[in-house]
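User: Hi! I have a protein structure encoded as tokens and I'd like to know what sequence might fold into it. I'm fairly new to this, so please keep things simple.
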């Protein structure tokens, strides 16, 4: 095996780098999300993003499960990058999405004015935890949707993931739908969030694995 091949092989599973990246980006998310939303409290714009579609979307408590599943997929995805280059591109996408959303939450805060129905049982516990974490002004663009699209692109192109691609597509689509059926976001938030995620993917394109 040539020296270059050995070097590439040693970078195939950059778990230490993935752990550091997860810690850094996770910290940036927690601090940035809390800070920008705290700054935006009481400063919501009078404009409402709610449309006829939003007023007719049913509230489906069970969709909390796919909605919150992104909290599991997100940290795992760092360890599924094939090498340091792919990990770096992935981190750039996430950082671009996070800082864009933080700026929008701070400068153009939009509040969710829906009245949520009661949720009981195990789902009620999850619901209370979600409501305790969420804050006013974090609607558009949806960081949940932007992150979803970035994860979607990474995992559906990843040969390490042994899950059938049709199942991955179906689950990610369900997560996108759940942003509506949990009433966490309006349709406008979802569309702008997915658009932001796509922009980040195009801005920092994937590197062919043979070249990485």
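Assistant: Happy to help. Inverse folding works backwards from shape to sequence: for each of the 212 positions I chose a residue that suits the local structure. Here it is:
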């Amino acid at each position: 095996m040539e020296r270059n091949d050995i070097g590439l092989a040693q970078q195939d599973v950059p778990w230490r780098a993935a752990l550091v990246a997860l810690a850094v980006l996770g910290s940036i998310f927690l601090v940035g999300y809390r800070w920008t939303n705290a700054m935006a409290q009481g400063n919501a714009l009078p404009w409402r993003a709610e449309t006829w579609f939003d007023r007719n979307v049913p509230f489906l408590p069970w969709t909390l499960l796919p909605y919150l599943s992104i909290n599991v997929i997100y940290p795992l995805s760092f360890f599924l990058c094939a090498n340091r280059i792919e990990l770096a591109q992935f981190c750039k996408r996430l950082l671009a999405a996070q800082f864009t959303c933080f700026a929008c939450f701070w400068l153009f805060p939009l509040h969710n004015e829906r009245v949520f129905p009661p949720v009981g049982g195990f789902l009620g516990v999850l619901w209370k935890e979600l409501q305790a974490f969420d804050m006013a002004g974090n609607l558009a663009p949806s960081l949940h949707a932007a992150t979803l699209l970035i994860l979607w692109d990474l995992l559906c192109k990843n040969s390490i993931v042994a899950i059938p691609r049709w199942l991955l597509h179906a689950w990610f689509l369900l997560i996108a739908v759940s942003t509506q059926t949990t009433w966490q976001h309006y349709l406008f938030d979802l569309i702008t969030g997915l658009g932001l995620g796509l922009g980040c993917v195009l801005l920092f394109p994937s590197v062919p694995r043979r070249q990485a």
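A useful reference point when you look it over: The chain has nine helices and no strands. Feel free to ask if any position seems puzzling.
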